[in-house]
Design brief:
143 residues; mainly alpha; 5 helices; 0% strand; elongated
């Protein structure tokens, strides 16, 4: 006889599915970009300079100036997807989007569900809005 455990809530399944598949897609793109970058494909920044400055512990502006010739901000990689390091950065960004899509999916699943747990819906929507605003660059951490 097969032993059955508790059934996971639908919102958790939706979040897990979104997070899993979007992260897998992002990882494949990121790994492809990094392999190309380390293999010597066309890159936006000089790999040798970048790695040596990272290991030396230099600040962000020094690393960008020395390895790429300019300091870039935000979603710099979107206009440079022909470069291997920009492709790797796209993969990282897609992985970050997994939580955003998963949270929105979980919130809508809870809203449609039989048991309306409005406090959890409110928490989920709050997280989804905050994550979305951070991804768009509206909210950022500055030091």
């Amino acid at each position: 006889m097969e032993k059955k455990g508790p059934k996971p809530p639908p919102a958790g399944v939706v979040y897990g599915d979104f997070a899993y598949w979007i992260t897998i897609i992002g990882m494949v793109i990121g790994i492809l970009g990094m392999v190309m970058y380390l293999a010597g494909a066309k890159s936006f920044s000089d790999p040798t300079s970048l790695i040596s400055h990272l290991w030396a512990g230099h600040d962000l502006h020094t690393i960008w100036e020395e390895s790429a010739g300019e300091v870039v901000h935000g979603h710099w990689y979107l206009g440079k997807l022909s470069y291997s390091d920009a492709l790797a950065m796209l993969g990282i960004a897609i992985c970050c989007l997994a939580a955003i899509f998963g949270t929105w999916g979980a919130a809508f699943t809870m809203l449609r569900g039989k048991e309306k747990q409005y406090l959890y819906v409110l928490f989920s929507l709050t997280c989804a809005v905050l994550l979305t605003l951070c991804a768009l660059g509206v909210i950022s951490l500055k030091h």
